[in-house]
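Obj: model holo form, ligand = flavin mononucleotide.
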Amino acid sequence: MSNLMEIVKGRKSVRTFDGKQISDEHREMLQKYIKEINNPFDIPVEFVFLDAKEKGLSSPVLSGEQLYVAGKVAKKPYADVAFGYAFEKLVLYAWSLGIGTVWIGGTMKRELFEKAAELKEGEMMPCVSPLGYPAAKRSIKENMMRKGIGADARKAAQELFFENEWEQPLNIAKDMEEVLEMVRLAPSAVNKQPWRIVWKDGVYHFYEKKDKGYDKEQTGDLQKIDVGIALCHFVMGLEEQGKSPKVTISDPGIRVPEAVDYIASVNM
Ligand SMILES: Cc1cc2nc3c(=O)[nH]c(=O)nc-3n(C[C@H](O)[C@H](O)[C@H](O)COP(=O)(O)O)c2cc1C
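Output (holo structure tokens):
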């Protein structure tokens, strides 16, 4: 993928499609890319393409979509974070080909999708996405939805990135500006942006600032998925700069408020 920052800045959720199938060439490229997708937690995430008409699949927020991709993962600790990381890789790659996506974790008839994706006991299918070419104009429904969620806004860096202690704003080093901007621009469920980072002793520690109602037994924690997405932007951004970040799970024991979960740390 060339110029990650351009892709991250240009990507927006697409809910209005032009009604055409994606080309065979694009489909093959996506399928090839999927085989290479990994995540730092080594939890396999499986992707299944589902034809909308053949399987009778739709979503009330979408129009003109012909194809979906569903993601499946075994239920275990960190499955949601791994899922967010892996699925976002596909989202960014699709956008680099001009293919629109939108994470769908809520606005779908879940039973139909789970059946079509042949979900098995012990697995979960937290989200799906349509795959298609954006229509020239967004539907009125989509514009209203974006407005309602405030989809174009993002929190300021000082609300997200801290130094040594919770809520002490990070002095952002020049060479980290771009990667942290990529984290800031990441998509999240209802645009809540629940990720927080505390930088301490040269390590970036990722946290989830939890809101109520996103953590479900059956489908995982959507906000942990969000943190996985943010982590994906961070790691891919660093890799693009030629760095070799290492993701570990080693809670540094920084004091955090209630309803904040430690997720993972990134060493340079
Ligand atoms: C985990 C996750 C679940 C989401 N679920 C839905 C959904 O069910 N329906 C929907 O229309 N958008 C959904 N979204 C899309 C977000 O609303 C969208 O990413 C956010 O508002 C920011 O807008 P943007 O993607 O255009 O930058 C979801 C996003 C994420 C990351």
